[in-house]
Amino acid sequence: MKKVEAIIRKSKFDEVKKALHQIEVNFFSYWDVTGVGNEKQGHVYRGISYSTSDIQRRYLVIVVSDDFLDKTVSTILETASTGNVGDGKIFISEVLDAYRIRTKENGHAGIN
Q: pLDDT for 39-96, tens place per residue?
């Protein structure tokens, strides 16, 4: 199993959520976050300078079986991208085990 952590633009969240549901990734957690990125220049709108590092973000955590990893990552990459600086990041890590508390199932059964 793998844990996919994605930081995406808040404005792209509904599109990403819909795309994940279409590939049958139906359970994940998310939070609203703000972070600091590498972008050094701000943008000026109506005379006011805005930092692009302060764009609202959503932090998604998705645990998937190994066979769903590539499909999940490619779906996020395709739907979350605007082609502009600040589109976000995806991190992948290994998950040793998962348990469903209600039934006490673990492994693949614990996440589905």
A: 655 666 677 666 655 678 999 999 999 999 999 999 999 999 999 878 999 999 999 9
Closest CA to 58 of 18, 6, 23: 6
The SS3 assignment for 108 reads helix
pTM of the model: 0.84
Distance CA 34, CA 16 (A): 18
Please check whether residue 84 is in contact with residue 70, taking contact to mean a CB–CB distance below 8 angstroms: no
- The interaxial angle of helices 13-22 and 69-80, nearest 10 deg, is 150
Element (H, E) at 15: helix 13-22
**Sign of dihedral through CA atoms 83, 86, 92, 95?**
negative
Contact at 8 Å (CB) between 71 and 23? yes
